[in-house]
Design a protein that fits this description.
By secondary structure, this protein is of the alpha/beta class. Helices cover 28% and strands 17% of the residues. It has 18 helices and 20 strands. α3 packs antiparallel against α6 and α6 crosses α7.
Length: 528
């Protein structure tokens, strides 16, 4: 996030797109609710009539996978109506003239049939966002889990640059992270293209730096994504370690995933429970849970926080850093002689420019947002206040393209997936919490009542949902929350493994799967 969570109740206009924040980030969403109650205007873009949509001044129920088209049309309106912040663009951006010429070809009348919303609503949203003194964008996986996820994010950045809604209180472009410490994992280098601190692995200077620090040869090339790794299981990859992820339920195309993992000669899983993925492993290491672990978490607003063990570890459970270090040492690698989480974090602070000014003791009270470049720096709650790290903000001439698969006679409905308030991720933890089954006893398929009737289904009764990759049985839930022609379910329950169906494509840059779009067929169980 460019702005701290404390800024959430400060914008004049809040633009939420691809984020069901009240269910996926219910605590943070209170900031949005406070802002709206105090008079902020709210734009909501989501194919489902989520709770935020009930409070929206402008609600755009776009067709799944059409975000880039919408954002291009909004940029067209901002340029056409001379709402560009010329002072900001002249001082802090490059490529505006080319971009303005580019978006002339994408008026709201072009986007409307793609997005399946009225052109005048697109215009209203664009004007509202651009004219405000302070507008802020919030988004989550509904923007990124597409084959055009990178283009979606770039398109949001274009709107921010056009209007200058960045670097000030109550503005910014703010991705809400999907799990705790996802931001911290990226900061530590858990990415195929970056060392710790987002230092590019294909930069010779970074290569030299980390060879010197780590005392070993490192390649000057991008690492492998998980998508590529799973494709090569049993061919060029024969061993794999999965730490804290239930890949079998969370990843697309489950049948492919299971085949890949079963093709390995050696699968190691580190987790706190025996998940569906762990049951396939040759070796399982029990990890400590968050309440049993000393460590550090960097949250969605880049705040670096100490975690303190509240209870002793159970049985043979050990912290993840200890397990990984012990494996590395037994494989003969040097540099893993850590005695505590403090040692690990202090090393991160030494190698990452974002953390150089921090150490284990300085983060004791959790008041610092990175970057903190030196020991005297107060932290950076708000990014880009005086300029951009790389000089000027660059406009991107994105274009719209259809999802990897589109609806047809065989698969005439759009399936989109997500999370529910009562069940977290793959149900590994919430599924073991007593009483949660009262709130959510099982999964269901949200479907508009008109579709339920048209397809000969019944509310509360099972149906069969199929895609080109497989089929599952699931209970129908008739609701106007889903628009006609679109159905929704979560991936939480192993009894309804929705990711048997997904997996039609990936973003070519990030290899993020298109989990938000999947053409399906839904029919009575007896008919198949």
């Amino acid at each position: 996030m460019t702005n701290p969570l404390a800024d959430m109740d400060k914008p004049d206009v809040i633009f939420c797109i691809g984020t069901n924040m009240t269910e996926c980030h219910p605590v943070a969403a209170t900031g949005i609710k406070k802002a709206v109650a105090a008079g902020s205007k709210l734009i909501v873009v989501d194919p489902r009539h989520i709770d935020l949509a009930k409070q929206a001044d402008v609600y755009l129920p776009i067709r799944v996978g059409s975000d880039t088209a919408l954002l291009l049309a909004m940029a067209h309106v901002i340029a056409r109506e001379d709402l560009v912040n010329k002072t900001f663009t002249d001082e802090r951006t490059t490529g505006l003239e080319e971009f303005v010429e580019h978006v002339k070809g994408f008026p709201p009348e072009w986007a409307a049939p793609i997005c399946e919303v009225p052109p005048e609503d697109i215009e209203k949203a664009a004007r509202l966002y651009a004219k405000a003194d302070r507008s802020a964008i919030y988004y989550t996986l509904g923007i990124t889990e597409h084959i055009c996820g990178v283009d979606n994010v770039k398109s949001l950045c274009n709107l921010t640059l056009m209007t200058g809604h960045i670097g000030r209180e109550g503005t910014g472009i703010n991705p809400m992270r999907g799990q705790n410490n996802i931001q911290g994992a990226g900061d530590c280098g858990a990415l195929p293209n970056n060392y710790p601190g987002f230092q590019a692995v294909d930069d010779p200077e970074h290569q030299e730096k980390f060879e010197r620090i780590w005392g070993t040869k490192v390649d000057l090339e991008l690492g492998m994504t998980k998508v590529t790794a799973l494709e090569r299981c049993g061919e060029s990859i024969f061993g794999m370690m999965i730490d804290g992820e239930n890949t079998l339920l969370s990843d697309p195309d489950r049948n492919h995933c299971q085949h890949a993992l079963e093709s390995l000669e050696h699968l190691v899983v580190i987790d706190i429970f025996l998940t569906e993925t762990a049951k396939l492993a040759h070796v399982v290491f029990p990890a400590t849970s968050w309440a049993e672990t000393d460590g550090v978490c960097t949250n969605t607003e880049r705040r670096v926080q100490r975690l303190r063990a509240a209870v002793p570890a159970q049985g043979d459970a050990k912290p993840d850093w200890w397990i990984v270090s012990q494996i590395a040492r037994r494989l003969g690698f040097e540099g893993f002689e850590y005695e505590s989480a403090k040692d690990v974090f202090n090393e991160l602070c030494e190698v990452s420019p974002l953390y150089n000014g921090l150490d284990w003791d300085r983060i004791d009270e959790g008041e610092y947002h990175w970057p903190v470049p030196d020991k005297h720096h107060p932290g950076t709650p708000r990014l880009h206040e005086t300029g951009f790290e790389n000089g000027r903000g660059i406009f991107s001439c994105t274009t719209y393209r259809d999802p990897a698969e589109t609806i047809n006679d065989d698969y005439p409905l759009w399936l989109t997936t997500g999370r529910r308030l009562q069940s977290y991720h793959t149900h590994t933890q919430t599924g073991r919490s007593g009483g949660m089954e009262y709130f959510l006893p099982g999964e269901s398929l949200e479907m508009h009542p008109d579709d339920v009737t048209r397809l000969g289904l019944a509310d509360g009764e099972p149906c069969r949902m199929s895609s080109p990759r497989g089929a599952i049985d699931i209970v129908v839930k008739a609701t106007t929350k889903s628009r006609p022609g679109t159905v929704f379910t979560s991936f939480s329950f192993k009894d309804t493994p929705v990711n048997v169906l997904t997996g039609s494509g990936y973003d070519p840059t990030t290899h993020t799967p298109e989990l938000k779009v999947c053409p399906v067929r839904v029919e009575p169980v007896a008919a198949s």
